[in-house]
Amino acid sequence: MAVAILIGVLVALSALGVPLVFAIFAAAVVTVLLVRPGLPLDVAAQMFVDGIDSSLLLAIVFFFLAGELMNQGGITARIVAFAAALVGHIRGGLGHVNVMSSLLFSGISGSAIADTAAVGTIMIPAMAERGYSKAFSAALTQTSSIVGPIIPPSIPIIIYAVLAEQSVGELFVAGIVPGLLLGACLMVTVYLISARRGYERGARASAALLGRTFLDALPALGMPVIIVGGILGGVMTATEAGAVAVLYGLLAGSLVYRELTLRKVWAATVSAATGAASVLVIVGASTFFAFIVADQQINKDVAALVFSISDDPTVVLLAIVAVGLLVGMLMDPLAALIIMVPVFLPTVIETGVDPVHFGLIIVLTLMIGLCTPPVGYLIYMSASIAGVAPEQVVRESLPFLATLVVALLLCVLFPILTLGLPRLLGY
User: If phi over 0 gives left and psi between -120 and 50 gives alpha, with beta otherwise, what is residue 193?
Assistant: First the structure.
């Protein structure tokens, strides 16, 4: 009964267009009133505050701000120029530049939405001018942008680390190989489509141009090295690394690139505050939702259901992936992450799945939902930048979505892809 009320109210309110954070919170409150009428409603406010009362979550605010500062400081254009020199000569050159730019930018923003906005505004018009379909350009941009939450730093991975009480550093390292795998798979798909459609290939960049664009982008590329290196070396916590990244972004944008003015710093601060607040209110509301899940022992019911199907770790993970892909189509991925982790984490641990491996799998699964209708935010953002109908973007996205699912399944079937590098580094 608790499950029916909780999910029913959430789905009904979402269908009526109620903002997700209020739908989540209201579903939990209604469930408490009907299932636990003796529980004081003060617990709702208490759980909301407890959910965001974590110093680790400050890292989200800092990484948002660092990414905005680097973007306002002219970093995106330099990353695109370096990517063009690196891979622009391959068949479907600008398509590969698009993917490579997302890979490089992901080490700065940690957000798929920020990646789409930054890279898309440059690459989609550029690709259209060179004869690429606008819908194809938008589809490639939105699907390659989900690499952002996989390669460190990553906002969803920080949230998972808080929920699962896992090491942020280990999770960051575990995301490097899957992120590169995603990029490689997308580039293969771009090549095959470009060969069939006759898309251009650019001239091979000279060694001088490659070196010049690399040096120009080097200050930006240094940020993820400092962040990950500082965390892995035990010099900084994730929160401290975020603060250092903000300072680095300020210095790089103002002293190195000389494009970061006080006006741009203010714009970056406002944008980062808005983005971080939208994430944190969802975290707070979803924490109360997760409390109801635990209080009603819904996770135990789910575990019993899963074990009735199979106790094989791979089968369990594949079942969760199927559920996650469906949920990701209908719900904000961060909210889905906060709701699903308390439900499924105890089950996967009981079957012998490493929680770090599970974390990367569930984050990647839910991020794919950003590119799938009907909710997929990136569909509408990329379509707006390209000036095409969202339906066209969805149609052109199908081969890329298939590629992402294949990469996801490879990560499920071969845990070494996520766990190999952390184990090599002694985690």
Answer: alpha
